[in-house]
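Here comes a specimen:
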Amino acid sequence: MIASEEQQEYMRSGHMACPGCGEASTMRLVLKVLGEKTIVVIVPSCVGVISATFPNSTFKVPCFHSAFEIAAPTAAGIANALRVQGREDVTALAFAGDGGTFDIGLQSLSGAADRNDNFIYVCLDNEAYMNTGIQSSSSTPQGVWTMTTPGGRQGRKKKFMQIIAAHRMPYAATASIGHPHDLMAKIRKAKNIKGTKFIHTLTPCPTGWRMPENLSAKAAMLAVETKLFPLYEVIDGTEYRITHQPLGLPVQEFTKIQGRYRHFTEEDTAILQREVDDEWEQLVAKTKGCKL
């Protein structure tokens, strides 16, 4: 259920993102939970485009633009300044994409997590550098089309949640706009935990994923229900909990609605299906039988 105070909106209409942007929808849901006592850190990326340019802002809360690679320590600095002021009721929140998280921002995020600074970090993962022309990142899945991998990316998507779990931060989770109540519940939980909290959200990009703008929520939902992007949380880096039991749909249900997979052969899809099944079994093993 959505609490009455979460009915308020903290993003204005008319943002500058592409129609159907998964990042914008995710940011909206996150802010609905955190409320007006939030300070947002954003970086030069699609996140920066969505927030709009001075003197206008999409957000109804204070917003700080940091450099691309330092979203985490910037939020940590704000959190520590709030602590010195005795402001325990204000949440420091960082938004960054997969490029600013998996790649250029990994070192600074690792340092902030190691210090266990008190902030929430939301990775908005659209699986490529979309803002600068759809270039491959280390979050781009193997075989997927981008402008810099026209024949399909050779590398494999980085297992980022394993990297996060290795930091043994108090709370980390995956989330998706295809399952908004799960996403909001995790933000609600993170808000009430001290220390570094990391939320990995899958945020479909109609432009980069080569699909109609009205399919973003469906694509996010199918990623979960095919087990390609399972929903779970990690407590203190060791305790895994699956928060949604997926339907186990064929992975092709997810890939067939996107042009970036159009060149996939039946063999390519079969390989992806085997990998998804293997990854799911490994996740279930980590939960030690606790599925929900």
Observations:
- The two ends are 18 Å apart (CA to CA).
- The mean pLDDT is 94.
